[in-house]
Amino acid sequence: MDVKTLIDSSAMTALQIIVIFICCVLNMVDGMDVLIIAYVAPSLSQEWAIGPEALGGVFSAGVLGMTLGAVVLAPKADAFGRRPTILVCLVIITAGVLLTALANSITELVVLRFISGLGIGAMLATVATLVAEYSPDRNRNFFVGLALAGYPVGATVSGLIAAQVVPEYGWRAMFLVAGGISTIMLPLVFWWLPESISFLVRRRPRNALQRINHILQRMGQRPLGELANDTTEGGQKGVRALFARDRRAATLLLWLAFLMSFATLYFLISWIPKLASSAGLSVELAIYAGSVFNLGAAIGILSQGFLSLRFGLKRVIATFMFATAALMLIFGFFSGTILVLVLFGLIGFGVQGGFTGLYTVAARLYPTELRSTGVGWGIGAGRVGAVIGPILGGLLIGIGLSMTANFIIFTIPLLIAGFATIAIKSVDID
Questions:
Q1: Residue 374 maps to which CATH number?
Q2: Each residue of 264-312: pLDDT tens digit?
Q3: Does some domain include residue 429?
Q4: CA distances from 350 to 125, 201, 301, 319, 420 (A)
Q5: How many domains does the chain divide into?
Q6: Residue 356 is part of which domain span?
Q7: What's the pTM?
């Protein structure tokens, strides 16, 4: 019996639960580190007297770093392993976030957000891959979603902390808090997070058999006497392999879905606190608006993972995106009332629930030797939209366009993403 069949046919073990838990916490750290800049934006813009256009550049610097991290660093996990890649990313993130607390100019802020983004971008892709490879096929959609739900949970928690810390201690304190949490995660990952068995079987680094048997023993499974011959066909490696004839169309559609959903998602998560503040809410309530959005996102991701097991992954993703577009179209009817917070939560539920399902699509679409590359480049292609979204949002806000008008404009990418997802053809996805 091969390792994949063993994992698919066996009950979940304590080690697999530990892997999913650690990856969920790592995504919480990512969520904190990405969203901090949005939560401190009102305080930062007031202290430094900067406008929305300059803030849009800061937001996009982090996203640009995440783009390069996803397409340059994440594929290294297919060559050197998931575990060492995650450790390197965590070191980069920790250093970048802690140093951001010392920034004294927009230029320094842009550079440090870019550095932090490098680690965050590669971390997201690699963590999703590792969880997929430790999850049985029957529950993979749910467990990948569960781990990725850590991202909005971390964003929500950081928003709640920011609402208390920023007014009292200033925006720099939030980066010290986040950097401290990242530092705590380093020994946890080093001592407890194992390498992917699927990676060890396919790549066969030095002492692969001993490392595989050590992991199998931690899972309560019998060790292997030897590694069977690898009967899979050779072929292109790296990003070129994503465009092999049997997966070219699926790859392009996946990239389109990522790009469009990223554009709307990053407009929302970057600008909700600022938009809410401009609408007359206090700094504290503006931060809570972002927290409500991310709390809804966490529930939406878990719901999507559960529903996709029953109704199919692509169908559920598209439904979430279409429903979110409808909510954004009616946003104007709630603007200026406390009900806007409820709508923020529902929009977070739909857009993040649908978007996160694309990680699972990518993890299922590509084989082990291409999985981190496929997930990373899918995310990287999407980050083009994530760069455009905050910048476009900043320009539209800067010329005086209302929150309602912005929301209507950003429904268009969501609809395109939903249709692109439905069009992806692969028997491995559902």
A1: 1.20.1250.20
A2: 998 887 777 666 666 556 666 666 777 788 789 889 999 999 999 889 9
A3: no
A4: 21, 37, 8, 9, 17
A5: 1
A6: 3-226+237-423
A7: 0.84
